[in-house]
Amino acid sequence: MPVVKTIKQHKLLLDTHVFIWLIEGNTTLPRTVRNSIDSLVAEESLLIAAISIWEIGMLVEKKRITLPMDVREWVERALTALQN
Asked: Which end of the chain has fewer surrounding CB within 10 Å, N or C?
């Protein structure tokens, strides 16, 4: 039987709405959740699905959400913010 020498680090895939709330600073996310996400960002353990980027574009196009800038710029800034 193989012996596990290291515990694999878990990754977290954010839901599209949680991603938007996080970037926009929405208080829907409790501080404890935001702190946990910040820890995962620091550990490079946070994932955003490509389909979430598409979904954000569709939500804006259908006027279900509004962003303070063009979708492409918002996504670029959001992904950059998660890397810092």
From this structure: N
**DSSP for 52-69, written as a single string:** HHHHHHHHHHTTSS--SS
**Dihedral-angle region of residue 29 (phi above 0 means left; psi in -120 to 50 means alpha; beta otherwise):** beta
Residues in the chain: 84
* pLDDT, tens only, 47-81: 999 999 999 999 999 999 999 999 999 999 999 99
- Residue 46 CA to residue 67 CA, distance in Å, equals 22
DSSP element (H, E) containing 14:
strand 12-14
Asked if 48 and 84 touch (Cβ cutoff 8 Å), the reply is no
